Amino acid sequence: MEFDDDDQRDCLEQNDCCKKSSYVSLQTKYANHHSSSSSVVSTDSTVVKAQKLDKHWLKDSNSRLWSLKQTIGRGSTGKVHLAECQASAERELVAIKSIPHGYSGIEQDTANVIRERARNEAAILSLLSHPSICSLRDVVHTPYHTHLFLEYIDGGQLLDYIIFHGRLKEKVARKLARQIASALEYCHKNKIVHRNLKLENILVTKAGDIKIIDFCCASVFSHNSLLSQFCGSGYFASPEFLKAQSYVGPEADVWSFGVVLYTLVCGMVPFDDHSMVGLHRKIKSGSVKVPNFVSTSKTSSVAC
């Protein structure tokens, strides 16, 4: 049985997915869809109304004091602040993802889902150690928030990188793709699936290396059973999600990686439409057209 239109909107996190037909119009289309789309958990405006941090500093589990600086990110579950350690002789920075426990104007069930995702992300990240995955340094629980102390990445989203550079040269695209593939292979070998791989959840450091972030939708999987939770972002969601089919796990990441790879080498997403129904129809068909300017070697990689 397939989703109807309302089910598709409910089951997919669409508040910050990448929407573009070419890198020239990438930013404009992204902004338009971002303002009109919905989220399965909450919207950024809801997060802004959540309980504010009651202090401008935090102590980690080792009682070291961290000073909260500017906000460097916002997501469906909370804000991310840059923080500096006050007890270190050398400058030490982390990114602190703060997930509020309470919200004004939202249902308790929704708040419980957000808290569960925070616990899930902390548990998953504690199992992972890979150079292309943002590492977890510490977890601190306060009366109003759960704080994830994460590795600070001195760069920006892959989305912004493509908006700025356009379609990438083959050498650069190959380097980034190999790092993403290495991280996914590592996760899958350790029976973990990300389930929300997209341009916004892939960071590029100033040195030009990849860091995958946001494991709140991640899950442990087994080849002896199937997963049935549908998550991810519309333009990167696999056909299994849209058709409400149970899945093992890795195939969802592989599909999303294929969309990312296509965007790297083509400067546009492989599936695009003016309506969500039309977009989902194209994704389910799996039919992809590769532009003529893409080399034969690239075409083989994208087609796979």
UniProtKB/TrEMBL annotation:
Entry GO CC: cytoplasm
One GO term under biological process is:
intracellular signal transduction
Would the keyword Nucleotide-binding turn up in this protein's UniProt record?
Answer: yes
Q: Which molecular-function annotations from GO does this UniProt entry contain?
A: ATP binding; protein serine/threonine kinase activity
Record's PROSITE patterns? Answer: PROTEIN_KINASE_ATP (PS00107), PROTEIN_KINASE_DOM (PS50011)
Q: Which residues form a coiled coil?
A: none
Gene3D superfamilies (alphabetical): Transferase(Phosphotransferase) domain 1
Q: SUPFAM superfamilies this protein is in? A: Protein kinase-like (PK-like)
The entry sums up its family as follows: Belongs to the protein kinase superfamily. CAMK Ser/Thr protein kinase family. NIM1 subfamily.
* Protein name according to UniProt: Pkinase-domain-containing protein
What organism is this sequence from?
Answer: Microthyrium microscopicum
